[in-house]
Design a protein that fits this description.
Elements (H helix, E strand, L loop, with lengths): L2 H5 L5 H25 L14 E8 L12 E4 L11 E5 L3 H11 L5 E6 H7 L3 H10 L2 E5 L6 H5 L1 H4 L6 E3 L6 H12 L1 E4 L6 E8 L4 H17 L10 E8 L5 E5 L3 H62 L2 H11 L3 H18 L5 H39 L1
Helix pairs in contact: 2-9, 3-8
GO cellular component, one term: preribosome
InterPro entries: Ribosomal_uL1-like (IPR023674), Ribosomal_uL1/biogenesis (IPR028364), Ribosomal_uL1_3-a/b-sand (IPR016095)
Protein name: U3 snoRNP-associated protein Cic1/Utp30 family protein
């Protein structure tokens, strides 16, 4: 399917791409002249002036609700990754088997290094070591069985600089499969979906021709519409732009039926909201009589309990006898011993609070010892009388 069939209109992609390449060429020549004038070291290597060409799409809806780790692999007619790029392959353990597999497939010139996941964890731990590994290779390929482990191992140094590993499906005993996967990785572009309505996909570089860029744009739009990455296909796209890393976005296509699509989308969203509200209202209506019945039952049970408690209180009032009341009153009365002890405690407390009246205390203990010897003498006289009576009885018996 062409862009005209996908989008419903003829898109002058080739003309716009040629104009963009001419602009980049003129700008590159100006920058080159300025750099030569300011160049101090004649032996310095020339910088690569090629820049990436991006395809920018805007959609009516979000593509996904969650950020996806595994990217979409979009095959292209013309490769945007140069064949001179050196790749590093990250594989599952054991590492030795995959090294032999790369040499057997004849890909040792492209895949220059193979690293096992355990060696990657052990050897490249610090931030500086990971940064050196990132700058050492142009492309990173990874076995799809370990791709989910790499964000923790590699960190943001890889994923923030567009050096995120590309997933490859390989097996330990199939060299042909490895070769096909590496070639397809070089002949494709990648897109990591996130919850947004505007995103960019790499479609080429300034070294490509305008025709090659137009064909790559067509293959990208076809993939997004056919694989339903964009909701509603071509109707869900609001605009398409083309740009380079330093240029402004050049409009390639704008949806002519944008207002109609927006009104349809709003109407559908309202229908969805109303359909969500209806079951909620139905549940409320079905639940309301049950709630009323429950509240009525609770009220009746409460009234019954109140009536029972009132009856019990009345019955207790009738059955109480005066004897019980007198016993209660007796229990409340204070015994005479405690009544005597209470004023003594009060007197002691008053004496403690009034230390000026302490001489009266000195007189009281003087009387106490005088009573004690009187008691002891009385006891001795009674004991002596008993002894004499006993002796007299004994004599009479004799």
């Amino acid at each position: 399917m062409s862009l005209q069939q996908l989008l419903g209109e003829e898109v002058p992609a080739e003309k716009i791409c040629s104009a963009l390449l001419d602009y980049e060429k003129k700008k590159g020549e100006e920058n080159k002249g300025n750099s030569e004038a300011n160049k101090s070291n004649l032996l310095e290597d020339e910088e690569d002036t090629t820049s990436t060409v991006w395809l920018q799409l805007s959609t009516l809806k979000f593509i996904t609700n969650n950020r996806k780790l595994i990217p979409f692999k979009i095959p292209l007619k013309h490769s945007i990754i140069p064949s001179s790029y050196e790749a590093c392959l990250i594989v599952k353990d054991p590492q030795r088997t995959y090294k032999d597999l790369v040499s057997e497939a004849g890909m040792s010139g492209v895949v220059t290094r193979v690293i096992g996941i355990s060696k990657l964890k052990a050897k490249w731990k610090s931030f500086e070591q990971k940064r050196q590994l990132r700058d050492q290779f142009d492309l990173f390929l990874a076995d799809d069985r370990v791709i989910s482990m790499l964000p923790k191992v590699l960190g943001k140094t890889f994923y923030s600089k567009t050096k995120a590993p590309i997933p490859v499906r390989i097996s330990s005993d199939n060299a042909d499969q490895l070769k096909k996967q590496v070639v397809s990785a070089y002949n494709a572009t990648y897109f990591r979906a996130s919850p947004c309505s505007s995103f960019m996909i790499r479609c080429g570089h300034t070294a490509n021709t305008s025709q090659e860029l137009a064909e790559n744009i067509e293959s990208i739009v076809r993939y997004l519409c056919e694989k339903k990455v964009v909701p509603n296909g071509g109707k869900g796209i609001s605009s398409i732009h083309v740009k380079t890393t330093q240029s402004m976005a050049v409009p390639l296509w704008n949806n002519p039926n944008l207002e109609e699509e927006v009104t349809k989308l709003r109407a559908s969203s309202k229908e969805v909201e109303s359909s969500k509200r209806k079951p909620a209202e139905e549940t409320k209506s079905t639940a309301s009589p049950n709630k009323k019945a429950k509240t009525n039952e609770i009220k009746t049970s409460e009234t019954k309990q109140e009536e029972r408690t009132a009856k019990n209180d009345q019955g207790e009032g009738k059955n109480t006898s005066p004897k019980k009341k007198t016993s209660v009153e007796k229990s409340t009365q204070v015994p005479p011993q405690k009544q005597k002890a209470l004023p003594e405690r009060k007197e002691n407390a008053s004496k403690k609070n009034n230390p000026g009246k302490q001489p009266s205390k000195k007189n009281e203990p003087s009387a106490a010892p005088s009573t004690q010897p009187a008691q002891s003498s009385a006891q001795t006289t009674t004991n002596n009388g008993k002894k004499k009576a006993g002796k007299q009885k004994a004599k009479g018996k004799k």
